Amino acid sequence: LPTPPARLPYVPRVPPMALLGKVTATTFALERPRCVFDRHADASDAVWLAVAFANASATFRNPPSRAEVPPYKELVTARSYMTLETAAAAYSCSAPSPPVLRVGDDTACRDQGRQDPCNGPLPSPGPYRVKFLLMGCRGPKAETRWSEPILLRRAVSPSTIDPVPTRLGSDVVVIASILASLGAVLATAVLGALGYGVWGSVCHRDLGTDAFIRRSYRTHHIPALPHPLPPGCGCSPPGLCCSA
């Protein structure tokens, strides 16, 4: 009988840090496992990712060989598939590998009908559960635990978007009108008070100036100045003006 694969304590998970497109309607990101398979892997071994609907992960059976790996195109019917076949050395402690993997990122392989592993977009929000499986020439050698359920985002149908802004209720409209009216009355009262104060100050200064003028310049009678001479009129001899 084949030796059952070693059970590893590692649990796959979505990265906890902020990441653009970490979970979308058809994809999700995973932390790349490091130093997880080093004790069990040989140079010729490969690591796979098993993806299953959360309610089907308990019935998933590891394939005995690469030829029997469940393909992506059977996900809807078989409720699981395997993808992201990668050399085990890429997950070693010393490998300079990217920190995350993206599940469902290959939009091209969905329509090609290929039999090789496909990392195509996920067909529904799920939820899904995943695990890593180390496979050698004689079958599975080690496996991680299943992840917690991963729920994708739900795409919003354009037909459900209301193009007309939501109308406020009548009570809200009445309250808003009353508040606006009170604000206008308050602003008018403030401006009126300020205007009255400024006008009073101006009148006070004007009265003071008028009183000063009357006290200073109305104490003596100032005779009226003579009218200017009409054009062409002169005096000859001096002191006598010619008659018209």
TrEMBL record:
Keywords: Membrane, Transmembrane, Transmembrane helix. InterPro entries: Uroplakin-3 (IPR024831). The gene is Upk3b_1. This is UPK3B protein. It comes from Callaeas wilsoni. The keyword Metal-binding does not apply. The lineage of its organism: Eukaryota, Metazoa, Chordata, Craniata, Vertebrata. PANTHER family: UROPLAKIN III (PTHR15446), UROPLAKIN-3B (PTHR15446:SF15). One of its GO terms (cellular component) is membrane. The chain crosses the membrane at residues 172-199. It comes from the Eukaryota.
